[in-house]
Amino acid sequence: MFEPFNKATDDGRSMKVYSTLLDQAIHSMIERQQEQEVDSLFSPGKTSALTQNLTGMEDFERVGFLVIQSV
């Protein structure tokens, strides 16, 4: 079950493909956050603009990978 994954990632030492996917997901979250901040400027109540400053991977700590693949 793990053999194809281990072979493709050199036993988990080469995770570039998965790191790239994670980076894309983080950038998508940041874009969504920025959209919500702009929306909050034009909504009643407090704004969330400029209260959080997420810029990329350096704002997160990866403690492990969980890869789900079809067999």
**Number of helical runs?**
2
From the spread of the alpha carbons, the general shape counts as elongated
Secondary-structure class: mainly alpha
Could you list the spans in which at least 5 consecutive residues all have pLDDT below 50?
none
Helix content: 40-55%
Oligomer description: single chain
Would you count the extended β strands for me? 0
The major sheet is characterized as:
none
Secondary-structure element order, as H and E? Answer: HH
Mean pLDDT, to the nearest integer, reads 79
Strand content: under 5%
Distance separating the two termini: 8 Å
Q: Radius of gyration in whole Å, from Cα? A: 18 Å
Q: Give the domain tally.
A: 1
List key phrases describing it.
single chain; mainly alpha; 2 helices; 71 residues
Written overview of the protein:
This protein is an all-alpha fold and 71 residues long. The protein has one domain. The chain is built from two helices and no strands. The N and C termini lie close together (8 Å).
